[in-house]
Amino acid sequence: MYKISKKQSKAIFLAILALCMLLTGCGGLSKKEPAKPAVPKVTKVIATYVQAPLNVPSIIEKNKHFLADAYKKNGIAFDYSTITSGAEQTTALASGDIQILNCVGGSSVLLAAANGADMKVLSVYSTAPKAFVLFGKNKAITRPQDLKGLTIAGPKGTILHELLVAFLKKGNMTIKDVNFVSMGIPQARAALEGGSVQLALLAGPVAYSAEKSGMHVVTTGEDLVSGLTLTATSQKFYKEHKDVIDTFLQVQKETLKYLASNTAEAIDITAKETGLTKDAVEGMYKLYNFEPNITDETKKELESTQEFLVSSGLMPKKIDLSKIF
Questions:
Q1: Final residue before a domain boundary, out of 202, 220, 238
Q2: Which of 33, 111, 272, 301 is buried most, with the most CB atoms less than 10 Å from its CB?
């Protein structure tokens, strides 16, 4: 019979031990982690198209196919959605029907985030404090104190509503000192002209035409509100498809460069798209700043809007703003 030496026995034992350790994952050899499911490749991107009050960059982007062409280079289809309501935009983002909100009010982003929606602010779309206006017929109304007891119409939970609250605060007053009636901008102007309200909160082309018709400007949003609108997506989409978002942000910057070099053409295109006169577009365009960079001032403005929403009972609680940037 063949005899195994002690040296051979030890070698066999060590080999068997090593095999056991390998099979059982012992001895410092880690188990193989299960592979994470691959993130599906993006084949189509949908962004909102909001034309009003005077979103010239969006109008030019669409007219010139800037976004569509940029995504096409990467094999991605692109389309617009004409959802304009802030609440409907954030709902569509949460459902995955839309990937990018290209112009959404800061208040809509805050309200969605406070209610648990996954939100990420990408850039500033515009600021335009002078484009938001409180009008009246009585030219004697100039101070916040003059508003006491009057009926004022305008859209609730918006920049215009925030403007009214900020103006009243300058006179140590609150929204409770007036009769605020919530209604859309065109309806508010009609109510003011019809005499059922004494003041109306207007913006965009409606405000421009009201001022041109000689209607009394009580105050604009200057030094009261920023008129801040934003672009946004979800944190999840941003993390999984940062390349898609980078393309969007690059096109946003390139569009602004195009506007700076082709302002006259942009005004012509905007006039045709909106049905406004060139003079109206030129007059309104001067009120808007489309600088996209997020600054400390941007965050302060959003914090101010959050204070307004919470104090007005429109937002259930404050959120940590750092979590949406």
A1: 220
A2: 111
DSSP labels, 50-98: --TTT-HHHHHHHHHTHHHHHHHTTT-EEEEE----HHHHHHHHHHTS-
pLDDT band at 12 (very low <50, low <70, confident <90, very high): low
pTM of the complete model: 0.84
Shared domain for 48 and 120, answered yes or no, is yes
Which pLDDT value is given to residue 318? 93
- Do residue 174 and residue 203 come from a single domain? yes
**Distance between CA 323 and CA 43 in Å, rounded?**
28
Are 325 and 294 a contacting pair, CB within 8 Å? yes
* Lookup: tokens for 8: 């051979």
From residue 259, alpha-carbon distances to 51, 276, 285 in Å are 16, 18, 11
Q: Say yes or no: 137 and 215 in one domain.
A: yes
Q: Tell me how many domains the chain contains.
A: 2
Q: Indicate the residue among 168, 197, 220 that finishes a domain.
A: 220
